[in-house]
Automatic annotation (TrEMBL):
Name the UniProt record assigns to this protein: LysR family transcriptional regulator
Taxonomy of the source species: Bacteria, Pseudomonadati, Pseudomonadota, Betaproteobacteria, Burkholderiales
GO molecular function: DNA binding; DNA-binding transcription factor activity
Signal peptide: none
InterPro entries: HTH-type_LysR_regulators (IPR050950), LysR_HTH_N (IPR000847), LysR_subst-bd (IPR005119), WH-like_DNA-bd_sf (IPR036388), WH_DNA-bd_sf (IPR036390)
Taxonomic source organism: Candidimonas nitroreducens
PANTHER family: HTH-TYPE TRANSCRIPTIONAL REGULATOR YBHD, NITROGEN ASSIMILATION TRANSCRIPTIONAL ACTIVATOR-RELATED
Family label: Belongs to the LysR transcriptional regulatory family.
Amino acid sequence: MNPTALEYFVRIAQSGSISRTAIEAGIEQSTMTRHIARLEAELKVRLFHRSGRGVVLTDAGALLLTRARKVAEALDETRKLAVTLADEGPSELVIAAQPTIAQRSFAAVARALRACFPDTRLHMVETLGHQIINSLADGKIDVALLYVPNTQAGTVDMDVLLHEPLYLILPPDYPPAATTTPVTRMFDQPLILPGTPHGVRGLVESLALSCNRRLHVEVECDGSNAITKNLVRGGVGCAVLPLATVAEEVALGQVQASRLVEPEVIRQIAIATARNRPPVIGQWDILQTLRQAILGQTAQGNWPGATEAAGPAGAGLEAGPPDTQDA
């Protein structure tokens, strides 16, 4: 038995008019009539006598009304409770992000969530992309901020927020870098790349394949971005990273950055939630709060290189699966 139909039945009985109840509920009269018709068919009794002046309860309808009121009241109380819980938020919220994203967003995200959900305990985690996907599916994380992989898990919903181009990062003692570097020129450089075939490594390998070029991997580094930057700063080789990862070092002249073009190499940054698990209390409000906090960082210039994702990434090559550094 459809509880919504029971609620409509109670409201019609109180108003004495199907059309008036439909207007108050904001639905078409025909939809309201179908609800009542189905309820009558299911119960195998007529609930209303209809006339030109409205409707009145039959004896069966009057008997049902005494029980249906309790159902309608219970549903109304449940809705009120749901609204209250949503306003308060969950008791705990676990948010995970990849390193560069965490670096650029966590402070703003924490401030925004504390303002909206002061009673919620925040647990913020910096981790790798493939670990985030697994933890979402396992229910260990509630919401994630990550680089969108080429092959998305079927259990994850992605809401793309930002587009972020990748840069060739060069040592400070190299000849002055141009603003942009064609992808084919990247293969002339000794590269510092992750050793595992995720994210940046897989992306650079796919670019080499499409350009019919071989990689010159000087060092494989599966450590943090900080180690990769130190290797570049020390003149060991060049890296491929987003500008946000090296903005401070570029400003200090410790490394150089040149945006990769022809094609432009773009990664997408998204909010991710699990499809295979029930949403946390107040999830819609939480996601909107996260979205506004992150977009606010971009609008204020606090996320170098990133732009709001108003649509598809365009003709550039979008990055592949998350890597071991910013995965």
